[in-house]
Amino acid sequence: MNERQRAFLDDLLETPSPSGFEIRGQRVWADYVSEFADEVRTDSYGNAIAVHEGADDAPSVALTGHADEIGFAVRDIDSNGFLRLGRIGGADKTVSRGQHVTVHAADGPVQGVIGQTAIHLRDEHETADIDEQHVDIGVESEERARELVAVGDPMTVEGRVRELDGSRLAARGMDNRIGTWAAAEGLRRASEAGVDATIYAVSTVQEEVGLQGAKMVGFDLAPDAAIVVDVTHATDDPETPTNRSTGVELGDGPAIARGGANHPVLVESMRESAAAADIPIQLQATGSRTGTDADAIFTERGGIPSLNLGLPNRYMHTPVEVIDTTDLDALADLLGAFVANVGVEETFAVDI
């Protein structure tokens, strides 16, 4: 990726966007795609859609990623001014304690830490649930805490983008800023190539709390096909249980999911596009759910052919998710190659 594309990725990763509170992240995304999209619009819940207008008789393809990330919410404020936590999405209790957090309050960010009793004073193996944990914002009274924050305010763990060796990158929120980045870059490639198909790049909201934005977008756009980009588990680190390994590794390219919601015609078309463009890919079995927006989109409007493309990601739902940027470049190239191959007469129908 070039300098501008990398800066866009960093902006996405550094902008807090917890589920239900995605506005700041969506502004970053919309500003970027407006440079090359024919139209950019949002709906009432903040799903953002950028359009490349194709030929009148050509099919439409949606390239989607979700804008939101996991986090926490202020569930309550106790009599000493400590904040009690609620989950936003699948926050992991084993990595939350001892973290710096930012409460995104109405009057601006409030800094705090998720408390952890010193090892000297607790059972060494104790792991409290999220609802038993607390945030210390440094105040001495409930009254002062309520001046700064309110129940329902979202919060995110402090995130830093860090370059590891070679092309590896670590950050909070790779899940799923890489998807919205790739959707934008896929649209860029479609625009530059002047492809026949109408291409929608979509940044959805509230995926982490039930695929909610995708349900809205799938119904509203009703595209002829949808390519859903999300992270998938790279199972090449030493702590992944052997019986959970999928063979997906960092640096070997994006993973094309097969089975379940993944439409067989799209699977084959994506594989053919990768082969023709000499883009490395991996395959991943999906027996039932993909766990992504594809599960919501494919049943809309009587069935929308959908496919999940996964970017290998280590340590998902932690503040230190790790990807390989060569996989991300390959993913954007694959999206561009795929949409360039969509013919005017393409129906994506299963031949029975």
Descriptive account of the structure:
The chain has 352 residues and is an alpha+beta fold. It folds into two domains: 3-69 and 172-340, Zn peptidases (Aminopeptidase, 3-Layer(aba) Sandwich), CATH 3.40.630; 72-157, Beta Barrel (Elongation Factor Tu (Ef-tu), domain 3). It is 28% helix and 26% strand. It is built from nine helices and 17 strands. The chain has helices at 3-14, 23-33, 93-96, 142-148, 174-193, 212-221, 264-276, 294-297, 325-340; strands at residues 39-42, 48-52, 60-66, 71-77, 83-88, 100-105, 108-114, 134-136, 154-157, 162-163, 168-171, 198-204, 225-233, 255-258, 282-285, 306-313, 321-324. The chain has an eight-stranded mixed β-sheet, with helices on both faces. The chain has a six-stranded antiparallel barrel with strand order 4-5-8-7-6-9. Helix 5 runs parallel beside helix 9 (325-340) and helix 7 (264-276) crosses helix 9. It is globular and about 65 Å long. The two termini are 41 Å apart.
